[in-house]
Amino acid sequence: MDTLPSYDELPYDSLPLPETQPDFLAAVARLHGFEAPDPRRARILELGCAQGGNLIPLAWRWPESECVGVELSRVQAGAGAAFVAALGIRNVRILHGDLAALPDDLGQFDYIIAHGVFSWVPPAVQRALLDVCRSHLSAQGVAYISFNVAAGWARLQPLRAALLERSPVELSAPERYGQALRVLDELEAESSDPVLLKEIAYLKSAAPSYLFHEYLADFNMPTAFGEFAAQLDAHGLRYIGEAGPRNAVVELEDAWGLIPESMAGRWQDAEAALDDGHATRFRRALVACDDAPCAQPPKGDALTGLAFHADLISDDELDLQDATEQRFTNPAGNVFPASQPATKAALMALSTAYPVALTYPELLAASRQLLNEYGVADDFDEAALRDELFQLVMAHGVMPTVDTGLHAGEPGEYPCAHALARLQASSPGWVVSGMRQVGLELDEAARSLLGILDGSHSVDELAGIMQATLAQTGLEISRQTVLDLTHHQLWLFARQGLLV
Ligand SMILES: C[S@@+](CC[C@H](N)C(=O)[O-])C[C@H]1O[C@@H](n2cnc3c(N)ncnc32)[C@H](O)[C@@H]1O
Description:
With 500 residues, the chain is an alpha/beta fold. It is 43% helix and 14% strand.
């Protein structure tokens, strides 16, 4: 096959994916006692990279890395290659081709990313994907392979079956999507299963490409964790850990300090049991070659060697006096509780520093200083902070990293956004990525402002341009209001690391 018509016809929304950032993957690996390569100078391969919405920002962030993307859909690969050419960076290539027939001269990679691919390709391509990992991972290299998990999908299979049966493949992609929406309405009226009703409600609001490529895809084959681990084994690969958010982790009492090989089976059984207990739907597995050192279940002690970033807010006034639970929310709306005064102070410090990361000692110092300012420094309890931080890291309320080199610019008198952000903002079909690999939801006005931030306009001039642009769409807004909005928007861009 030389292209994939379904993805040519309705391309996948190609988004930046925070969980695939190599600095994050290296941090997760370290929590599992596994030392992954330096992400800043890594060779990174992304399989099934769509138009490169994830890979290109990684290449941009680390100019000394070398990134290769492989994508079978001709349309998506072409869009990615054209974007790279327009951006003019040389450390990323998007190749049109089949991951099962890679060119011979690609070499070894420190990180291999395959997000949303494994469960959505035929078994022969699944095996090829694992072969690619085995033959192209460097000695300490790490692969990220996400897949749908049987434990959680068992309840959803009837929904997929009904949608497939009642949305004929003969229709064009948009017609099929429209038909699937009608089927969802019918199923909603018929069903009383809360899991299905929740999923139907989500699907009706989700991006068309999600419903189309998840529920109407030719292949969507959820795998049990144990089966996945067995497939890794058959390909000379081994599980390192989970890179997705988790509310529960496997702990094996005597595991830390290089898990004996004999314990790996027990660990995998426990992971499978966790999936059954939590009806896990999706996993993001970190994988290494089986001749690399053995990983182990994650341990909070390893936090001391990492750095952290978090974009959290709390609506309540923070109580740093007592260990009362308070709720912190990230931009995606996920809520994370914290109780210990030292943790709450640490989250405040991280929020102020964002997108810059704080090392563990810096975080301790910042937390201690805040508690001092509130006159409660005597209560500083590092062990309690570390325990709570570990839970927050596992749940992705706080993201760990091994790279502290990110600096964020301030909006000066002549604000300037970096070239990637400007090009993303002015290219329809591209999502603007924050420096921490998050997709930013920007309205048209914000995109057009970002697109012209080349350092040649003063804030005043920018506000004038924005006022005129908004007037063309029928929105008459006073100069002062537009100026305030412009300042606020520039602040948001700075917070996402888009300004230089
Ligand atoms: C569900 S999409 C995920 C895209 C992207 N990784 C992401 O998560 O945003 C799956 C992608 O894998 C690509 N793909 C499927 N089979 C492939 C193959 N044999 N070789 C390369 N790419 C393939 C599809 O064209 C599609 O872009």
